[in-house]
Amino acid sequence: MKPPPLKDDCFSMPPGVAWTSVDVALERLRGSLHAVTDFETVPISEAGGRILAADAVALRSNPPYANSAIDGYGFAFDSLPKDDLKEVPLANGRSAAGNAYAGTVAAGQALRVLTGAKVPAGVDTVVLEEDCSIEQDRIAFRAGLKKGANVRLAGEDMVKGAAALAAGHHLQAQDIALLCSVGISEVSVRKPLRVAVLSTGDEVVPAGTAATETQIFDANRPMLLEVIRKWGFQPVDLGHVRDDPKLVRAALDKGAAKADAILTSGGASAGDEDHISAVLTKYANLQTWRIAIKPGRPLALAMWDGVPVFGLPGNPVAAFVCTLVFARPALMVLSGQNWMEPQGFDLPAAFSKNKKPGRREFPRARVRDGIVEIFKSEGSGRVSGLSWAEGLAELGDEAQNIRLGDRVRYYPFAAYGL
Length: 418
Description:
about 20% helix
């Protein structure tokens, strides 16, 4: 099955919108995108890291039968003596995991039952071996045990026919365990989302090559390719092209042929040398969102031959932050996953700051001794701050006068899947 293509106008903003808040931009992305990847069926051994294309339905209940949670003795609770000291005769035999007791335990009797063993007919409660005095043909223990104690009921974890995991779930090791426990040996999954990354600019050269005094090494493309790998997508390296519209067009054509989405960095604004914007404006339905965010601001969005293009800012910090905040949830939807908000925490600030209104700020941050530190510089070219940081702080759109100890929102990089 192949999902329908995205609409050419899926990135368009309502008329008259000049500045776009972070919340509005995210809501607009959420409402305009859908999964674009095909389906395939794979064995469960190859399903780790993949996205479920359909609900995974339990083929068997888990547990498939009532079983004992401990080593002990099983009996019918209501047949116990009413005395504080319970003395119960033992039936011959035992029930062990993989070797169940075949008969029925008579009322007023107990049977030796081991951990994981099927609870035989006539048994609804198991007493712990260490709580018993044991003689050759009987056991004794004190009152206080509840009916049903130490018995795992059939299907208490998962019932046959129930959806073990829903479509859109990103399968992890623990999910594989769940699916195997209910008898699932293969699943329908989405094919991996292919995400192409392109760098542009005459001033940019790959690291390791000769650079003039006016050129800089390309930090964005290697960074974004690694982010794509971390998210479980398939990276497609489009390399670097100079500020030449023909080269930019050729690179976008190559990306559209090989990938399901394209990330570019640099050239997304409206300057004379912003060739990404110029090419997308001339040959595609470019939508430039002026987002009220720091670091970053312009986010160029377009469809190139049916493939969405995310034009990121050129400064590495701005490109990184915009990728986490905007590209990640959008790419998750395109891959077949559910839209996911990052999980943040409100923690005391280790800094003071008078924040101006109008833009949401995401300073690089980390937590030490339970308080949030932010990087010494707000410059979006200070790449060292990305390595220093372990997450992002979030300062809201409104004016704020933050003082030491005030609570601020903190998102560890793990909240963004890194």
